[in-house]
Amino acid sequence: MGLTEDPGNGAATPAHEASAAGEPLAEGAAEAEDELYDITIIGAGPTGLFGAFYAGMRTMKTKLIDALAEPGGQLTALYPEKYIYDAPGFPKIISKDLVKVLVEQALQWNPTMCLDERVVTLDKSDEGHWVLVTDKGRHLTRSIVICAGVGAFAPNKLNAPGVDDLEGVGVHYFVKEKAAFKDKNLLIVGGGDSAVDWALNLQDVARSITLIHRRDEFRAHEGSVQELMKSPVRVLTPYEVKQVSGDGKLEQCVVYHNKTKEEETLDVDAILVNVGFKADIGPIREWGLALEKRGIIVNNKMETNLPGVFAAGDIAAEEVKMNLIATGYGQAAMAVNVAKNYIDPKSSIFPGHSSEKM
Ligand code: FAD
Predict the structure, then answer these.
(1) Is there an atom of ligand 1 within 6 Å of 135 CB?
(2) Ligand 1 contact via 189 beta carbon (within 6 Å)
(3) What is the distance between the alpha carbons of residues 290 and 306, in angstroms, rounded to a whole number?
(4) Could you tell me the sign of the dihedral formed by the alpha carbons of 228, 256, 241, 252, in that order?
(5) What is the pLDDT of residue 32?
(6) Ligand 1 centroid to residue 309 C-alpha, Å
């Protein structure tokens, strides 16, 4: 479950620079399911990441859980290559670069990061702690900040015969490590930034790469598409997958031109599907939270109707809704500092100034 081991009570430990640089986060030793955390943040979008930073600064033993395999929320899933012009401190910054620095800032305190894990239920333990059950295990915590944005992201699945049977044994929706594609004849499906970026970035490990996209026009960044067209990657448009096959592992994929219906059988041992994400608030509706159409109802301390459970960012329904990264930062700071006071009433809500602490 946990990717980055927590050293203890969240005391300051230098950042993992590899993670901050966008490389895979180090796999930590499996943690005990009954380990109690001070605070668990659901959602590693900008709001949750900034909240994790604040929780670390308040020496809270912190856990961050996200359904996506990578942190960054909407910035990672929906617009990684776009410029953001209203992120505090950056006149302009590419979305994925903002995620990189947010991760670097959050990881200064070594929160436990549980990625690719979706929170399904919220309950109370016999001891009165909160219990979060995910699709991979359970997590015990004294307080919770829900930073779930527009809901849990999951990749859109490829809808073709054979795909489901070969998921994990040739069919992939994420690149967790480039080495998984070493010496593979790789087919990439998609026409957005992720598909094009991976086609360019996996050239040094894959034996061959073919990219198919169902339209002639790409949605990816113009410069990346130009680079793709000049690269050795074989590009087929407008092509789609008809079926995949293999005996226990992927061996072949039939693709077809969606206008002429002409078919081609490709010998491939890996397919990377990058055809977008869907978001779903889903289970959060069943957790006993007071909701309204726009999200979870909070007061001006970001408290929900459940004691010790807070909400911040896009998921928090306020009188005037302002779904912006900057708004989430402020709400995360409020929620985490109120949570600190909730678990330890002797500590003040106001954290003091970081410039005087660090
Ligand atoms: P999100 O970014 O949505 O992150 C929520 C995370 O929670 C997700 O990773 C999700 O997987 C996870 N999650 C949800 N439910 C669960 C669960 N049950 N279990 C585990 N994980 C869960 N804002 C700006 O300020 N400036 C801009 O220029 C800007 N441009 C934008 C452009 C586009 C195309 C879009 C779509 C949005 C833009 N926004 C912009 C809005 C901004 O991206 C959002 O306000 C911001 O991402 C909200 O952050 P968040 O952390 O609250 O939620």
Answers:
(1) no
(2) no
(3) 8
(4) negative
(5) 67
(6) 19
In whole angstroms, how large is the CA radius of gyration of the chain?
22
**Structure tokens given for 40:** 């668990």
What DSSP string runs through 202-266? TTTT-SEEEEE-SSSS--S-HHHHHHHHHSS-EEETTEEEEEEE-SSS--EEEEEETTT--EEEE
Q: Residues 203-210: what's their mean pLDDT?
A: 97
Torsion-angle region of 308 (φ positive above 0: left; ψ -120 to 50: alpha; else: beta): left
Strand-pairing partners, residue 152, are: 280
How far, in Å, CA of 199 to CA of 187, rounded? Answer: 9
Pick the residue whose CA is nearest to atom 9 on ligand 1.
73
* 131, 125 Cβ separation under 8 angstroms: yes
Give the residue from 55, 70, 61, 91 showing the smallest Cα distance to 25. Answer: 70
pLDDT for res 31: 58
pLDDT on residue 34:
83
Tell me which of 245 and 4 has the higher pLDDT: 245
Return the DSSP state at 179.
G
Count the Cβ atoms, other than its own, within 10 Å of residue 216: 9
Residue closest via CA to ligand 1's atom 13 equals: 152
Specify whether the CB–CB gap between 270 and 170 falls below 8 A.
yes
pLDDT at 282 over 80: yes
